[in-house]
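User: Please predict the structure of the protein below. I'd like the answer in structure-token form so I can feed it into my own downstream comparison script.

Assistant: Understood. Taking the following sequence of 158 residues as input:
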Amino acid sequence: MRQPYYDSILLIERLHRHFLEVLKVELDRLGVQDINNVQSLILYNIGDDDLTVGELTARGYYLGSNVSYNVKKMHENGYLAQERSAHDRRSVRVRLSDKGLALRDRISALFERQVDMLDRIGLTPDELAKANDTMRKLERFWSSSLDYGAFPAVTSAA
């Protein structure tokens, strides 16, 4: 079990890096130079929502990135609109600007093209669902190990 577990850890990290590289190539193809791949993923994850930076951080995993810095840069480059919360003046809410919505739509189109290509490489919806279930089990395992300070007993319940 040790080697498959270790292989999974390495594969998850490599998949994330490859996905960010796919985003970078798409941004280059679109001629977009004022936002990077991590920022574009943050932008995509904001979607149609109006969020605080804390909510945004909790929603996604932006390896090696400072979400506050990236939000600031995306605001400076016109991808995000910001406003102070009426209830808590320390809190800033962000949402996509028209420019941000346009890029989000282009990234969505990339994802749709990729979904259409999955059949061609022989990856079925069931296989993808099973892989997602496995990754969720690993996520729960790692999260519970943080919550309890030790590795918990793991059951087969989903």
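That's the full token string. The CA atoms of residues 111 and 117 lie 10 Å apart.
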